[in-house]
Amino acid sequence: MKMRKLSMIAILTLALASLTAHAGEVTVKDGKVRFLAVGKPSLLKIKGEGQSLNGSATADVKGDQAKIGGTFTVDLKGLKTGIGMRDHHMQEKYLESEKFPQATLKLAPFSGKLGSEQEFKGDLTLKGVTKPVTGKATVTQSKAGEFEVKATFPIKLTDYPVGVPTFAGVTVADDVTVETEFTGHAK
């Protein structure tokens, strides 16, 4: 009987420890990226999405505090706006996705309370040019240890050799909002 109680106490202690302290690598699964570009005139809103966000992060969770950082890539060829001609122009003329198939975000480690929005900094490489970015991210963790990360950050098209897209008298504004989200499980 004493051995059984000790075993139960040991199991509960290990279970609580795994919920309150976890450090390790998180592999991205179910990653998505979206962008919103507003046209001039501002009535035009161009929304795009891609399902090919990949990468890995390091996570250190202690209680309700988390520290996370990592490197993420998105396959630019997978970005779609829902209009074939616009997608073709975006891929061929502006992103040159055959020559530059990926964009990469190196996320500097940031800390904060799980479930609350935190500021992050990183470096975005697009078409061979790397520029610093700053945004907001929220990290949550399930009891099973799976992480969900949602982040938003602005970029300026003129910071990269993309050019400002124009078609039929409509020009896209320089500022584009990028949103990413992924789930991942710590190894």
Can you offer a commentary on this structure?
With 187 residues, this protein is of the alpha+beta class. Helices cover 16% and strands 61% of the residues. It is built from two helices and nine strands. An eight-stranded antiparallel β-barrel has the order 1-2-3-4-5-6-7-9. The longest helix is centred in the N-terminal third of the chain and has 19 residues, at 2-20. 23% of the residues are buried.
List keywords for this structure.
187 residues, alpha+beta
Biggest sheet architecture: 8 strands, antiparallel, barrel
Our count of helices gives 2
Q: Roughly what fraction of the amino acids lie in strands?
A: over 45%
Radius of gyration: 20 Å
What is the β-strand count?
9
How are the SSEs placed, and which strands pair?
Elements: H1 2-20, E1 21-40, E2 45-62, E3 65-75, H2 84-94, E4 102-113, E5 117-126, E6 129-141, E7 146-156, E8 166-167, E9 170-186
Antiparallel strand pairs: 1-2, 1-9, 2-3, 3-4, 4-5, 5-6, 6-7, 7-9, 8-9
Brief overview, please?
The chain is 16% helix and 61% strand. It is an alpha+beta fold and 187 residues long.
